[in-house]
Amino acid sequence: MTDLEPVTATDLRLMQGLAQRVTAARPDLVNSDASFGELAWNWGKGHAADGASWTRRLWFSGGDPVAWGWAQLPHRVRRNDGSVKDVTGAYLAHQVHPDHAGLLDEVIDWYDGTAAGLDRTVLACAADEFALTRWSAHGYGTDPAALGDTGSWTQLNERDLTDVEQPVLPDGFRFRTADQAGPEAAVRAHLDAWAPSAYTAEAYEGVRKAPGYRGDLHLLVEAPDGTMAASTIMWLDEANRTAEFEPVGTHPGHRRRGLARAMLLHGMRLARAAGATHATVACLGAPGHPQARALYYGVGFRKFTRDAPLIKTATAG
């Protein structure tokens, strides 16, 4: 493997800039984990704990980045319940501007060199026929484990913000922001919704430092007993007037009460007031994961794009 070049905050801003330009030109070709908000969320929550296993390369034209690759190499994940997971393969997040599509071969070669000897996975965009052809030419095939009924592929959902209904919370519940509730409540809300989780106070500090984070667009729902029963972060891409929800979660003791629905509607109305005209949210797309998809469809989102999970095993070269 090559020497690691960790993803820095400066890199992140450049990568987000490319995400904004691709969104403006061909939003259907924005790869999973390569959108403005996903980049910020993944870098923010992970750079302190996992950054030593990251490496990246950027390609430029005329001073602007036109392609990048972000390889995540083997590492150990420690969760708040004491469990440990060893990640033994490599994963690539990446983006290539459609006007420079030929650079994808260089991105793939860099990834193969960086992760040589490892199983390598990548989430290509299913709408990008050129990219799928190039990945196949380099020995990548569909990942059967990711494509099963309970597989891990995701779909991106979208809606406009011209008509957003008024949110309704159960009696005694109220909306808060992270600015109002404070860091401890924001971290607890995430841990309760996603347990077991590797999220920490340090991870949240990273999220707060990520370009695009706004505490007034980090929303929580507070229960009558003071529990933060649901939470989400909205990432506002001002250049494209788009708000992206990532993540969205509800405390298991408060599910099926309409809290996430109300929070999403409230968030969309706040995003519209902040200048957004469009919203996106991703979810697992496999048939065995209907809950989040039903939630998002219920507040007006519809499928826009989806992943094409690919893999190249270590034995394939």
Question: Any overview of this molecule?
Answer:
This protein is α+β, with helices and mostly antiparallel strands and 317 residues long. The protein has helices at 9-25, 36-50, 104-114, 129-137, 178-181, 183-194, 201-209, 259-273, 290-298, and strands spanning 54-61, 64-72, 75-78, 84-87, 90-96, 120-125, 141-142, 154-160, 174-177, 218-222, 228-237, 242-250, 278-284, 302-312. Strands 1, 2, 5, 6, 7, 8, 9, 10, 11, 12, 13 and 14 form a twelve-stranded mixed beta sheet that branches. Helix 1 (9-25) packs antiparallel against helix 2 and helix 2 (36-50) crosses helix 7 (201-209). The longest helix has 17 residues, at 9-25. The radius of gyration is 19 Å and the shape is globular. The protein starts with 8 loop residues before the first helix and ends in a 5-residue tail after the last strand.
Summary tags:
317 residues, alpha+beta, 12-stranded mixed β-sheet, two-stranded antiparallel ribbon, 9 helices, 14 strands, 29% strand
Write down how many β-strands occur, each being a DSSP E stretch of 2 or more residues. Answer: 14
How is the quaternary structure best described? single chain
Q: What's the order of the H and E elements?
A: HHEEEEEHEHEEEHHHEEEHEHE
Shape: globular
Number of helices: 9
- Residue-averaged pLDDT, rounded? 96
Strand content: 25-35%
Taking the alpha carbons of the first and last residues, their distance comes to 13 Å
**Radius of gyration over all CA atoms, rounded:** 19 Å
Largest pleated sheet:
12 strands, mixed
Helix content percent band: 25-40%
What would you call the structural class? alpha+beta
- Low-confidence segments, ≥5 residues, pLDDT <50? none
